[in-house]
Amino acid sequence: MSKQVILSFARTGVVIVGGGPAGLAPLLAAHRHGRLADLLKEGVTVVERSGAIGEGSIGQWVIQSDSTGFTFADCLAGPPGSELAAVRSYPLTKEFVEAGDRAVPLRRAGEFLALVGEAIHKLVATAPNGRVLNRHRAISTQRTSTGWLTLIEDVESGRELTIESRDVVLATGASQPAERLRSEIVAGSNLVERCGQRLLQSSEVLSASGFAAVAARLSGLGPAPRVAIIGGSTSAAAIADALLHRLPGITFGAGGVTILHRRPLRIFYPNAQSALADGYTEFGPEDICPISGRVFRLGGFRLDSRELIMQARGIGGRPAEPRLQLHRLGLNDESSLALLDQADLVIAALGYRPRALPVFDEAGRRVPLQAETGPQARLVDDHCRVLDAGGHPLPHLFAIGLAAGFVPYGKLGGEPSFRGQANGLWLWQSDVGGLIVDAILAPCFDEDYLVEASALAGLGEIKATQEFEV
Ligand SMILES: Cc1cc2nc3c(=O)[nH]c(=O)nc-3n(C[C@H](O)[C@H](O)[C@H](O)COP(=O)(O)OP(=O)(O)OC[C@H]3O[C@@H](n4cnc5c(N)ncnc54)[C@H](O)[C@@H]3O)c2cc1C
């Protein structure tokens, strides 16, 4: 007897796979622009393998955010009296608004997004032809003559279902695959072979249990342990910040924590004048966002990570932080390898790879995706369309979220010199999510339409990382 049941409720609508922050983002982008009712009319189904939508994995990290409290709360922006208006006056929302331009603990950000998720759950579930399928895992999606057939599984009963829809949005988050780590070469040496048991990935360190395990491991080492962090992204700086400021029982000596990075470590400034007033001159016209005038808007460190890197670099009169050493890779391999060899713990903060979903064509053949072709290959194009291995967009299949590879361009702003990907919620909840909403609501899907799709000014906060590049 077949385990499969065809659900017809989503036949003409959109399936969002993954109900984390990115899965909610197109809905929030639609809400921001007064188009949520239109989107819900299409028939939206959200498939989420955990018990609730909204939080995803962001709340599990023990660090502070590198986007501001206000930026998180701004996801509720929209017309007065709009569907999510009531959530704006929740105490937690007010707390985030009051945090203003300060960082917030990501644990709290997770709680806030869970509340937003609860409100969105109600809206989707009460819309005609709308469903939220918690505790359901998507297994694959297959092209049909009219859209996509997505195979899902009830994680409790194991029952399989398929959903037909015109559009699919993949928002399945990202991971740090062990295979990628195994092939990582630093200063000419294979990282895994060189560091063995001393090597951890940043995601293992930043969870509450992982951080406690690191604390226990370091405290068992005696005085002045040494940690080497490889990576030039916000995760690398956030780990250094957490080690230096959240482990009162551990005493690091001078240079006890080292960040080994390949790219220069850039500092965000709201404008060129304030950078120059700080004596910060490491930028040119290419490093300034033409829309907002911000310096290193995408590639610069922000908030707590910014403070720490400024201290370590002696910028802006910050007090020195002798416990943190910055080491540029690629200049002297011997000294880089010595730092790795002397470290008690080596943490690879080398970014994430998108999870996506296995995709099949109409004939049932697996479609390899561009993201599978290399350690830095993007999952999506400039319109959030999933690309096959040949670089061709798959019709009506979109992706958004951590490591999907979206790079802001044109009216979305950002410094022209930026190389990397933008992994900030605000951008997904406004301009990037807006691109997907525009495509879904376009009366007739047309390849050229997306080129014209409206991209807003993008003046808000964007947290960007230079993932996959150290
Ligand atoms: C350490 C760290 C700090 C960050 N700090 C910030 C910050 O301060 N500000 C900011 O804006 N951004 C930040 N980000 C970036 C980003 O906002 C978060 O990573 C966010 O959690 C990404 O959301 P997501 O939906 O892409 O992925 P996730 O949060 O991982 O959510 C994915 C969801 O999809 C579900 N799922 C996965 N596979 C399936 C499947 N097959 N079927 C059904 N459901 C599935 C999961 O259960 C999960 O709920 C940070 C990222 C990291 C790693």
Whole-Å distance between the termini?
Answer: 52 Å
Largest sheet: 6 strands, mixed
> Which residues sit in consecutive blocks of at least 5 with pLDDT less than 50?
445-470
Q: What does the average pLDDT come to?
A: 91
Instruction: Categorize the overall geometry.
Output: globular
Query: Could you say which small molecules are bound to this protein?
Result: flavin-adenine dinucleotide
Main-sheet strand order equals 4-3-2-8-20-19
| Alpha-beta classification | alpha/beta
Helix-residue proportion: 25-40%
Strand residue percentage: 15-25%
> Total number of β-strand segments?
22
Number of helices: 15
The radius of gyration computed from the alpha-carbon positions, rounded to a whole number of angstroms, is: 22 Å
Kindly describe this structure:
- By secondary structure, this protein is an alpha/beta fold.
- It is built from 15 helices and 22 strands.
- Strands 4-3-2-8-20-19 form a six-stranded mixed sheet. It has a five-stranded mixed sheet with strand order 1-7-6-5-18, with no helix packed on it. A five-stranded parallel sheet has the order 12-16-13-14-15, sandwiched between helices.
- α1 crosses α14 and α10 packs across α12.
- The N and C termini lie far apart (about 50 Å).
- Flavin-adenine dinucleotide (FAD) binds near residues 17, 47, 50, 173 and 357.
Short description:
This protein has 470 residues and is an alpha/beta fold.
Task: Please describe the structure with a list of short key phrases separated by commas or semicolons.
single chain; about 475 residues; alpha/beta; 5-stranded mixed β-sheet; 22 strands; disordered C terminus; binds flavin-adenine dinucleotide
